[in-house]
Amino acid sequence: MDDSTDLPMSQHQILKEQLKERIALLEQTVASQAAVITQLQTEISNAKNHSSSVQEGIPQRLDTFKYEVLPVNTFTVSGTTITRVGNRLWSSIFLDHPITKGICRCSFEIGEKSSTWIYFGIVDSSLTYTHNRQPLGNGDRDVVSCGYRAGTGEMFHKNQSEFFRNKDEIAKQGDIVTMELNMDTHPHTLHYFVNKRQCRNAFLRIPDTVKIGLTFYYHGDSVKLTSFGLVDTPMATSESLDYPW
């Protein structure tokens, strides 16, 4: 026999109200947890979309990067090491992965036996370049590009027609030169680092689609690609001398 039937009606009502409160609290907890789960699912989905849609062309492995050489047969590529071969002349190699969105960071280690006649820069990937109109290092003022020369710390724009020199930003053998392109900022920016130390000069208003390029002069000069990909947070600060593209 159910003893509760002997309870006064007021106590029945109290029990009923208490059960209602407990059910309401449980429903609120479930709803709150469901909202958290939904938010996490949204963040995961956005992260996946960001990584896949921002730069589908960025290689998943460094040793699978694509490249283009001008003129042909002037470089060898072994794994992630790029080496200049042949007679003395300006030769360029581009990472054939157009950068359009996100924060892209790319680092190179200068070879131990290399000269410092190596240029690190970017080019407008919508343009076509030829042997006679290389974008980096040969003084063609009609070509629009910008970059950094390791041995002097010079920054140049429109190839060698504009120079900005900072002697404390010289890179030598064994040093790591990093380029950080921020395509999420407006205007887009390019900052340089030598061994993680930010260079004082930076470039503003770079084109919406660019490629990373290097120019060499001497046979045997080499660099090793040590990192290339998207990052969530920039290293660069606003404390730089900015030059427009």
Give a description of the structure.
This is B30.2/SPRY domain-containing protein. Keywords: Coiled coil. The chain has 1 helix and 15 strands. The chain is an alpha+beta fold and 245 residues long. It has 2 domains: 52 residues; 183 residues, Sandwich (Jelly Rolls). It has an 8-stranded mixed sheet, with no helix packed on it. The chain has a 7-stranded antiparallel sheet with strand order 1-4-13-6-7-8-9, with no helix packed on it. The protein is elongated and about 100 Å long. The termini are far apart.
Q: Can I get a quick summary?
A:
The protein has 245 residues and is of the alpha+beta class.
Globally, the shape reads: elongated
Number of helices: 1
* Residue-averaged pLDDT: 80
Order of helix and strand elements from N to C terminus: HEEEEEEEEEEEEEEE
Spell out the CATH superfamily of the largest domain: SPRY domain
Distance between the amino and carboxyl termini: 90 Å
Strand content: 35-45%
Taking Cα atoms only, what radius of gyration do you get, to the nearest Å?
A: 29 Å
Level of helix content? 10-25%
Question: What is the CATH C level class of the largest domain, in words?
Answer: Mainly Beta
CATH topology of the largest domain: Jelly Rolls
